[in-house]
């Protein structure tokens, strides 16, 4: 039974189990709700890079930080579609386009993004976008253009959020998720660990995600990739044990959700990634970059899939349409 009524104490107890016990429990939940050994391969492309007015302390695209990232305007449509085609040929079934905007504005650039969405959708890929905050009208336009999913991460707990970002509020993020859900789009929302937060901040972020009116269809678990020039440049690398706790707890709380092993994978050997799959991760981003930070390329991931006996998940499998909220409420009432 899906639950959206988890208490903070329940999430705390799950997260703080002995790690091997937690992974074993998550693996059992995963086997009951997902096809084990099936992993979705996603590709993320920065279609507009740098120059962002936000002050996210981890982000090399913030205009106020000197990180060496070269800002560029929106990529030509043909370049984006060609990248999507290459990603499909390499095995990706979801293609995500990211723009370093604070929020979507109703202008020619947004119209161009809508056209890109339509063309990538025509390739048979799940199309995802992360463009900053969106209102309900903009979310509806994205849906009409063929967008499948919208990514808008919470990043961290509400309590720690002000230490990381001051240029938008936690409620702003939750409002965008609500607009995305109302438009009938698949919700992709997770967070980043390694931002100087405590274990309790991680527990609270997971609790927030798991008690939304409907679980996000996708929850990315990111490990901070420190970038020189950002305020968090000196943060230590997150350990595999911390990633396992996040992934396993997310899997138990949200059994039907895609749990994405996202940023930070470049530093993880195959042995560590295998543990994450055992704990319930069933999606990765593949390709040389995640927006602006390094990421394993397609060839390395194909070798890993062959070694671990993993198979790629098809596009649009178990599609969850507009009724997700109703289904979640029904499950809780049952």
Automatic annotation (TrEMBL):
One Pfam family per UniProt: BATS
Its top-level enzyme class, in one word, is transferase
| Binding, [4Fe-4S] cluster | 52, 56, 59
UniProt-listed Enzyme Commission number(s): 2.8.1.6
Spell out the reaction equation it catalyses. Answer: (4R,5S)-dethiobiotin + (sulfur carrier)-SH + 2 reduced [2Fe-2S]-[ferredoxin] + 2 S-adenosyl-L-methionine = (sulfur carrier)-H + biotin + 2 5'-deoxyadenosine + 2 L-methionine + 2 oxidized [2Fe-2S]-[ferredoxin]
- The UniProt entry's coiled-coil ranges are none
Q: Which residues bind [2Fe-2S] cluster?
A: 96, 128, 188, 260
Task: Please name the InterPro entries in this protein's record.
Answer: Aldolase_TIM (IPR013785), BATS_dom (IPR010722), Biotin_synth/BioAB (IPR002684), Biotin_synthase (IPR024177), Elp3/MiaA/NifB-like_rSAM (IPR006638), rSAM (IPR007197), rSAM_sf (IPR058240)
Co-factor binding details: Binds 1 [4Fe-4S] cluster. The cluster is coordinated with 3 cysteines and an exchangeable S-adenosyl-L-methionine.
Entry keywords, A to Z? 2Fe-2S, 4Fe-4S, Biotin biosynthesis, Iron, Iron-sulfur, Metal-binding, S-adenosyl-L-methionine, Transferase
Specify the Radical SAM core domain's residue ranges: 37-265
For activity, the cofactor(s) needed are: [4Fe-4S] cluster; [2Fe-2S] cluster
Q: Does the keyword Iron-sulfur apply?
A: yes
| Pathway annotation | Cofactor biosynthesis; biotin biosynthesis; biotin from 7,8-diaminononanoate: step 2/2
Subunit description: Homodimer.
The similarity annotation says:
Belongs to the radical SAM superfamily. Biotin synthase family.
Q: Tell me, in a sentence or two, what this protein's role is.
A: Catalyzes the conversion of dethiobiotin (DTB) to biotin by the insertion of a sulfur atom into dethiobiotin via a radical-based mechanism.
What PANTHER family does the record point to?
BIOTIN SYNTHASE (PTHR22976), BIOTIN SYNTHASE, MITOCHONDRIAL (PTHR22976:SF2)
Q: What is this protein called?
A: Biotin synthase
């Amino acid at each position: 039974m899906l639950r959206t009524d988890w208490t903070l104490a329940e999430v705390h107890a799950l997260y703080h189990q002995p790690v091997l016990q937690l992974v074993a429990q998550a693996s059992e939940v995963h086997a009951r709700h997902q096809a084990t050994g099936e992993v979705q391969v996603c590709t993320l492309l920065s279609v507009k890079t740098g120059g962002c007015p936000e002050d996210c302390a981890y982000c090399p695209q913030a205009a106020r930080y000197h990180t060496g990232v070269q800002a560029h305007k929106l990529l030509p449509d043909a370049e984006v579609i060609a990248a999507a085609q290459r990603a499909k040929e390499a095995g990706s079934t979801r293609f995500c386009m990211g723009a370093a905007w604070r929020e979507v504005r109703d202008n020619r650039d947004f119209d161009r993004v809508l056209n890109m969405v339509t063309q990538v959708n025509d390739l048979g890929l799940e199309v995802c976008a992360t463009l900053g905050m969106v209102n309900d009208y903009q979310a509806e336009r994205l849906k009409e253009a063929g967008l499948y999913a919208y990514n808008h991460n919470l990043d961290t707990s509400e309590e720690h959020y002000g230490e990381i970002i001051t240029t938008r509020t936690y409620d702003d993020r939750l409002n965008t998720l609500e607009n995305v859900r109302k438009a009938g789009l698949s919700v992709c929302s997770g967070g980043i660990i390694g931002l100087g937060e405590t274990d309790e901040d991680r527990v609270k972020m997971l609790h927030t995600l798991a008690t939304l009116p409907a679980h996000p269809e996708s929850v990315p678990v990111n490990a901070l990739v420190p970038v020189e020039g950002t305020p968090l440049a000196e943060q230590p690398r997150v350990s595999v044990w911390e990633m396992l706790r996040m992934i396993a707890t997310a899997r138990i709380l949200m059994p039907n959700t895609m749990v994405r092993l996202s940023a930070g994978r470049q530093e993880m050997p195959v042995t560590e990634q295998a543990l994450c799959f055992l704990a319930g991760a069933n999606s990765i981003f593949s390709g040389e970059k995640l927006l602006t930070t390094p990421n394993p390329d397609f060839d390395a991931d194909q070798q890993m899939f062959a070694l671990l006996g993993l198979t790629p998940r098809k596009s649009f499998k178990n599609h969850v349409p507009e009724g997700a909220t109703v289904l979640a409420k029904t499950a809780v009432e049952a």
